[in-house]
Amino acid sequence: MANRFAAFRSRWLTRLAGKSPRSVAGQVLVLQVALVVLLVACGVLAVFLQSERDTKAEAISRSVAVAQAYAHSPGVLAAVQSPDPSKILQPLTEAGRKAAGVDFIVITDTKGIRYTHPLPSRIGKRFVGNIGPSLNGQVYTESVHGPLGHEVQAIVPVEDSRGHVVALVAAGLKVKNVTNAVDRQLPIILGTGIAALLLATTGTVLVARRLRRQTHSLAPDEMSRMYDHHDAVLHSVREGVLIVGGDGRLLLANDEAGRLLELPHDADGRLVTDLPRLAPELRSLLASGREASDEVYFAGERLLAVNQRPTDRDGGPKGTVVTLRDSTELQAVTGRAEIARERLRLLYDAGLGIGTTLDVLRTADELAHVAVPRFADYVTVDLADAVLHGEEPAATATGMRRTAVYGVRDDHPLYEKGRLIDFVPSTPQARGYGRGRSELVADLTTATGWHAQDPERTRQILDYGIRSLIAAPIRARGVVLGMANFWRSTQHAPFDEEEVTLAEELVARAAVSLDNARRYTREHALAVTLQRSLLPRALPEQNALEVAYRYLPAQSGVSGDWFDVIPLPGGRVALAVGDVVGHGLHAAATMGRLRTAVHNFSALDLPPDELLSHVDDLVGRMDQEEADTESVAGVMGATCLYAIYDPVARRCVMARAGHLAPALVCPNGTVTFPDLPAGPPLGLGGLPFQTAELELAEGTQLVLYTDGLIEDRRRDLDEGMQMLADALAGYPERSPEESCQAVLEALLPGRPKDDVALLVARTRGLAPERIADWDVPGEPAAVAVMRDAVSRKLEEWGLFELGFALELILSELVTNAIRYGSEPIHVRLIHDRALTCEVADGSSTSPHLRYAATMDEGGRGLFLVSQMSERWGTRYTPQGKVIWAELALPAAVEEPGPEPG
Questions:
Q1: How far apart are CA 766 and CA 829, in angstroms?
Q2: Residue 401 pairs with which residues in a beta bridge?
Q3: How far is Cα 640 from Cα 595, in angstroms, rounded to an integer?
């Protein structure tokens, strides 16, 4: 209240200080200045009129005196009665006029004919004026327009000894000369008036300044409003207000303050130390003048919140203003409000702190940590064991897994985390789970049904001091997932019904997050299972490469990263790595379709660029199918790298579709990234793919990977590739398995944000003695020569058991090459895990297997080849084609092992 009063006073005074024209002092100043101006103006006017009147009166008096003097002067009567009065009187009147200071002296006869005049030409002419009264013996004054202009004149009769009027004497002044006399006095009059005005205005301004300071420049209506507010503070405000002067005397106390402090009626003006019925602490505060904010003091049976502020902060008089608020009735309400505020804050924190991840165990831990110690001393969370695996929970509280335990102390006797619990039907947990309602046990010592769960354990819990329990079911979508148990020890009051509602609110916030985490766990498990089922479960057996791999799923969801190792005819091996943009089941399913397509196209023994072209067409058709079904889950993007390594030629041919270039670790430990042409991602279509052929020294490591290995929010692509090169460089003797581990430790110290597929293959070469080849002339006799040469090589390799079948196959293939193909014709035998016979010629025509009829003479050659071999096929080369056939080695013959790197 004190702050509001001070702010009110400061706001009013500051706002009104700029309104002096409307203030009381301003209005008084204006009125006083106007009055002074009016009085001075009236005084000047009065002085002016008085001066004018006095000047005219003086002129008339002088005229009368001059005229009477001449009328009674000796000799005038005789001169008038002389034969020529003008001759005698004219010089005398002119001399007298000049001596008397008048403008004219005129003597006329009784008929008004002039004897004298300042203008001689006017002598003998009729006098201008009223001579009637003067002929009757009177002195007459008047203002006329005579020969000299506007004149003021006095006419006096000249009488003889018998009293008869014999002549008239007129004397006077021009009005112009009378006005000039007034004008000469006007500066003195105005100067006196201005001086009086300045003196009076200065006094008025001084009085107004004093009045302004005393009224704080307030306008009359504002002063009235201030007095109304003053009366409201005194009589209507329901807070006590005291104003104490600098000398410690009480200057003001409103009605509420008098009621709260039980002040006497004569309290105003008394020292606060002399006021009766004040507590010593409150009396000391009022006398000290120090600042106080919401300090609590007793006044009788009342509990008062007291605020005290000084009044001289803004230049006011020294003293303090004190506000008193009766908080006796609010004390209990304040306590309840504080409890409600703490509960709301707890629920707010629970909304922020629970469900930060899609992990069931983490969410249960967050629920326990939020509630301890602000609501419970210990919290345990028991979930149906099926929930932890993403499945639907059971209908009864059996098979409950304790997923979270947290409390104010760690030595509690509650069941430990991870324990599988079967709650008996009489326990609060079983009842709450079955009914879907919270169970309150205010006193665990009397809960016999709870004791039946584990008598020894319950005795330990009671001895530990735990006395109260709320078992709240964790419900989501109408299904109970588990129970949250809130325990309270004897150090706090037992739970009540109101706190059951709070526990249910807390659990409700966690239930949605737990159910989301459960459903995510199920979906994630399904996606991971699908993805792993689509990835290679084991590497195929082959001698061309020593291969190791790593596949790491992302933190959340699964992606479309994949890899494959595919044995090809002639001891060759194909390596494939791909990535489908996106996450989830759709990405995993798309990845499986692409991997299957690559597998199928590789069976056709296509070059890498042709294989990628076929896969690109397939992805385009997949997108078209998705568009036709109005599905939003099309193939958003896919990349692939396909490489074929030939251990016989020690060459690797590769092509890529929007994928990252592989890394090559040379036998000397250096790391390079080959300049492999970057084709467009799969599905765009319209652009060709290009191949690059590399000659790899034996022992070279070929490292294929997806972007999840090197790309991250914290580093760009170039930095990731440099880190990969650093992890691989300098260790040529390291095995592919060791290289995989080293790369992951260097680039992925934690769980990756995206899927990662890593494939490391060390090249091997096939020993020259395991290879035999011949150039074949294009004539039929060469067939027999080739049969003999092949038979000798089989005997050398110890494969004479395969002689008949291989001779038959070789005869048919060479005969077809000579008959239908073109030179050059070349035969090659490869002794690896199988015996491969290859016949190459310069023609691109492909033979077709057909079944000859009984009467046909030909058409059975390729049929015999297919029957005698394990598999056969055609591979096209830039020089023509190669027809190959594989025969399985006899069981007694040891398969050749890999050559040392």
A1: 12
A2: 383, 420
A3: 10
pLDDT computed for residue 715 by the predictor: 78
The answer on pLDDT for 757 being more than 50 is yes
- CB count within 10 Å of CB 693 equals 12
**617 in Cβ contact with 637 (< 8 Å):** no
pLDDT digits (tens, 9 = 90+) for 495-534: 988 889 889 999 998 888 888 888 877 877 777 777 677 7
pLDDT at 671: 93
Q: Phi and psi at residue 402, in whole multiples of 5°? A: -75, 110
How is residue 870 written in tokens? 């394990």
The neighbour count for residue 524, using CB atoms within 10 Å, is 19
What is the value of pTM for the model shown?
A: 0.53
Residue range 91-108, pLDDT digits in tens: 888 887 777 778 888 888
In the chain, the N- to C-terminal Cα span, in Å, equals 92
Give the pLDDT score at 17: 40
| Of residues 163 and 403, more confidently modeled | 403
- Reported confidence tier of residue 603, pLDDT bands at 50, 70, 90: confident
Integer angstrom CA distances of residue 792 from 515, 547, 797, 799, 809: 73, 35, 9, 10, 16
Q: What is the DSSP string of 585-625?
A: HHHHHHHHHHHHHHHHHHHTT--HHHHHHHHHHHHHHHHHH
For residue 638, list its beta bridge partners.
580, 682
Residue 675's SS3 state is coil
Mean pLDDT score, 195-216 = 72
**The Cα angle at residue 630 between residues 625 and 636, in degrees rounded to 5:** 65
What CA–CA distance (Å, rounded) separates 29 from 36? 10
Alpha-carbon distance of 365 to 374, in angstroms, equals: 15
> Which residue is listed with tokens 């507590």?
279
Q: What span, in angstroms and rounded, lies between the C-alpha atoms of 543 and 873? A: 21
| Polymer length of the chain | 901
Nearest residue to 172 via CA among 40, 77, 306, 68: 68
Going by C-beta distance under 8 Å and a sequence separation of 6 or more, which residues neighbour residue 507? 367, 472, 473, 474, 475, 484
Task: Evaluate if residue 325 carries a pLDDT over 80.
Answer: yes
Task: Write down the mean pLDDT value for the chain.
Answer: 82
- Which domains are delineated in the chain? 21-218 (3.30.450.20), 233-332 (3.30.450.20), 354-525 (3.30.450.40), 540-763 (3.60.40.10), 768-888 (3.30.565.10)
C-alpha–C-alpha distance, residues 561 and 706, integer Å? 7
**Nearest one of 295, 304, 299, 300 to 329, comparing CA atoms:** 304
CB atoms within 10 A of CB 799: 18
Distance CA 352, CA 727 (A): 41
Q: How many beta carbons lie within 10 A of that of residue 537, not counting itself?
A: 7
Cα angle value 441/446/452 (rounded, 5°): 90
Distance CA 753, CA 496 (A): 46
For 104-135, letters b (16+ CB in 10 Å) and e give bbbbbbbebebbbbbeeebbeeebbbebeebb
